[in-house]
Design goal:
The chain is mainly alpha-helical. The chain is built from 4 helices and 2 strands, in the order ββαααα. The protein is 66% helix and 2% strand. A two-stranded antiparallel ribbon has the order 1-2. Helix 2 runs parallel beside helix 4 (127-149). The chain is flat and about 70 Å long.
C-alpha cells in the first residue's frame, strides 16, 4: 500500500485519492476570472430570454394567459438564470477539492428546505410564481453555502468546515524596501 501523501496526492473527503491537492489560494485569480466570465454569459442569456419573452411571447403561443404568466415570472426566471452558471462553477470547485462530505451536507439541507417550500406551495397555492421563487432559493442557497463553507471567502470565513486558516491572510508582511 502506498501512502497518498507520500505520492504527492491527498485523500479527499469522498475517499478518492487525487494526484495533487487542490490549491484554492493559487486558483483564486482563475476562479475570479471564471466567475466574471460566467456572470457575463449568464447576463447574455438573461437578456436574450427577456427579449424573447417580452417581445416574441405571442409568437410562441396564441394563449394570451400563458404570455401574461411568462411575463409575470420573468424577473424570477432572470434571477435564476443569472445565478445558475456561477452556482455550477462554485459546485465544480468543491468537486475539484474532493469535498464530497460538504457537498452532501449542503445538498441535504437544500433538499429539505425545498421540500418544505413545495409542501407550502401545494397547501397554500402560489402557482408558477412560487415555483420560480423556490428555484431562485435553490440557486441562492447553494451559492451562499458553496462560498461560505467552501472556503471562498478566506479572509472573512477561514474555511469554516475544516478550520483551516487562509495562508495568505496569515502570511508574514513583506518588509518595505528602504530607498536611499
Amino acid at each position: 500500500e502506498k501512502d497518498a501523501a507520500a505520492e504527492g496526492g491527498r485523500e479527499g473527503e469522498g475517499g478518492a485519492v487525487g494526484a495533487h491537492a487542490f490549491d484554492m489560494v493559487a486558483a483564486r485569480p482563475t476562479i475570479n476570472k471564471l466567475v466574471g466570465a460566467m456572470a457575463c454569459v449568464s447576463s447574455g442569456v438573461v437578456a436574450l430570454a427577456a427579449f424573447v419573452i417580452a417581445k416574441c411571447g405571442p409568437s410562441l403561443t396564441s394563449d394570451l394567459a400563458v404570455v401574461a404568466q411568462m411575463r409575470r415570472v420573468l424577473p424570477l426566471m432572470s434571477a435564476t438564470l443569472c445565478m445558475h452558471g456561477v452556482t455550477v462553477l462554485l459546485e465544480g470547485l468543491l468537486i475539484a477539492k474532493g469535498d464530497f462530505t460538504l457537498l452532501n451536507k449542503i445538498y441535504t439541507a437544500v433538499v429539505l428546505s425545498i421540500a418544505a417550500m413545495f409542501l407550502g406551495i401545494r397547501g397554500g397555492g402560489g402557482g408558477l410564481l412560487a415555483v420560480w421563487a423556490v428555484y431562485v432559493w435553490y440557486n441562492l442557497s447553494r451559492i451562499v453555502a458553496f462560498v461560505v463553507w467552501g472556503g471562498l471567502l478566506p479572509k472573512v470565513f477561514p474555511d469554516l468546515r475544516n478550520n483551516k486558516p487562509d495562508p495568505v491572510a496569515e502570511a508574514e508582511p513583506v518588509p518595505e524596501l528602504a530607498l536611499a
